Each structure stands twice: as C-alpha cells, then as structure tokens.
Amino acid sequence: MQKVDFEALFTDLIQQKLPLYRSIAVKIVNSAADADDAVQAALVKGWQRRNSFRSNSAALSGWLARIVVSESYDILRRRMRDGKKLAEYNGNDDDPAENPALFKLDAAIAELPELYRETVNIAVLSELSMEEAARVLNCAVNTLYQRIHKAKSLLKAKMRMVENE
Amino acid sequence: MNDFNLDKLLEIKKHQHGEFKQSTAEFTADFFKQIHAQKPQKRRLYIPILRWAAVAVITLTAVGALYCGLYTPPNIPETPFYKLEEALHLFGGDAAVMFCGNELLTGERSESSTPNNLIALQIPYNEQKIDLFLASADNDTVVLNSPQANGIIVTSRSDSKTLVVDIELTLNNQNIRTAIPVVLKGNYYYSTI
Question: What class is the A95-165 domain?
C-alpha cells in the first residue's frame, strides 16, 4: 500500500481551507479565539481518523468542515454552561455595537436540527458556491436547495416565536 | 419575520469576520505541536488475536461435540402461536388480533392492558371444528365487526390456571355460541388441546 505523507497532506489542507473553516466557526462562536479552538479541535479529530481518508483527501476536507460546525457548537454550549445565555453571548468583546437581531438569529440557528444547522452554516453563511457546499455536505445541489428552503422556513418560524414572546 | 428580513439578516451574518491573531503558518505549527504532544496510541494487537482464538475454540468445541454425539441440536417445533405472536407484534397490544383457521381477524378490545394470554381453542364450524387463536388479557372483551366475523368474545379468569372463553360470533354467516375453558400449558399459553 502506498505510504501517505499525512503531515504534508494536513499542511496543504490547512493552507487551503483554514480561511473557510475559520469563517464557518467564527459565525457560530462570534469570537476569533474560540473559532481557532474549534478548528484546531476539528483538525485533531481529522488527524485521529486520517487513515479512513487515506485515498480521498477531498472527502476529508468536507468532513472536517462539518466537524468544524459541530465543534463550534460544542464550544458555544460550553460557554453557555459557563452561565451565559446564547442570545447574550458575544465572544467578540471588542465589538459591542452588535445588531440584537443577529443574536436572535444565532439562537434560532443553534436550535435547528443538525442537518439544517450544517446547511445554514456551510451553504448559506460561508463563501462557498452551491456546488462546493453540496460537495462538502455530500448531497446533490437540488437537495441542498430544498434543505436551504426548509432551513429558512424553520428559521422564520423560530424568529417569529421569539418576536411574539 | 418575513423572507426579506431573514435574507437581510443572513447576509449581514455572512459578512461577519473575526480578527484572527495567528497567521496560517503559526496556526499550522500549533496544530502539529498538539499532534506531536499526543502520546502515540498503543496498538493492542493482542485483542483481535484473542478474539479470533476464542471464535476458533468455540467452533472447534461445537464441531467436536457434534461428532462425538455429545450434543444433539434441540428440535424446536414451530409453536401454533407463532403467527399470532407475529400479528400481535405488528398490530400492537391495543388491537384485538386473532386467527380463525388461517384467517386473520381484528377487532376492538375493552381492556387497555396489554394482552398477556395467548389462547388456542377449537370452535364448532360447518359441522366440523376449526382452530381459533387469540390474545387477551385476564378479563377482556373483544368486539368483532367485520363482514366475515361479527360478535363478541369474552375471556374471564376462572382460577390461576384456567380461563373461560365465551364466544358469540357470526362467522361467515354461521352462528357460533359456546363457552370453552382453556388451561395453562406453559408460560402464558392456554389451550384446550
């Protein structure tokens, strides 16, 4: 079996995908430091599972993007456990002038089922094209459009509920 | 919240960026520092070897015992309740499920508790007898209301080992009226046979 130089593979992956992973994570945790922690944690998981992806580095990069989402929500949950409600949590202390509606949006996204949460974070909020996002999420572009539509209707319903409270 | 407002918010969110202190090179170096700091996982090769050894020992023992005539596989007969148990599993405990001959009949039960008795009996039909398999609770009433079968079956507990099944049915235009005691034959199986 051909020996894979995983260190070189991960170095390339980080060079190419770090901006994407950071941009996904920072929109969830709202803090650059926490976003880096989430990306590091996802990469460590990827390293531990590197042998499963030895022949398919594209699959590894897509899988990592999804792990970044879940690690970011783990960090967010830890912060919330530390006593801060999601809607009040703003990791970026340097920028207090935030739109309160964005906090409500964050909370609504966090409450979505995992499939739709990934869809919003990877296909709607990242800079990926629909085709790239579909590859990362391992689905057809048409399916992705349907998921986005469904995710948005769930978000609207959740935001409406918050508005009425 | 309408589509326009949501899209506007998502667009603002999409353009949020953080100020990352580490450069890509620093981030990469940090990552590899973490990776190298992790202890290499011990490869526990002996676990799969032990697993295979156990499988081999069990297989060889079983084959050897069969050859020496020490072990004869049990002859498990298919119980007459097999179909009823399958139907019960399929329809759930709330429905009244029974087999009259090979015909599946369903009705309504009065009892909300799960049927805990499986009963096999023979009822007179067309000057012969046919098998009736039904599930019921200790004191239960089953009402049948279908074109093939119409009527009522009441099960009452007589003593710890006996149930009485009172049947008043019109089965394919034939009236059946009988009361049959059934006796515990094992576990929760009751039968006249």
Answer: mainly alpha
Bridge partners of residue B29, in order along the sequence: none
- CB-based contact (8 Å) between B15 and chain A? no
The residues, any chain, with a CB within 8 Å of residue A113's CB and separated by 6 or more, are A154
Query: Mean of the per-residue pLDDT values for chain A?
Result: 83
ipTM of the predicted assembly exceeds 0.85: no
Angle among Cα A61, A65, A69 to the nearest 5 degrees reads 160
Contact B35 A44 (CB under 8 A): yes
Q: How far apart are CA A98 and CA B57, in angstroms?
A: 68
Token pair recorded at residue A23: 């941009």
Q: Decide if A165 touches B, using CB distance below 8 A.
A: no
Query: Residue B114 is encoded by which pair of tokens?
Result: 């799960």
SS3 B43: coil
Q: What is the pLDDT of residues A70-92, one digit of tens each?
A: 999 999 888 877 755 555 555 55
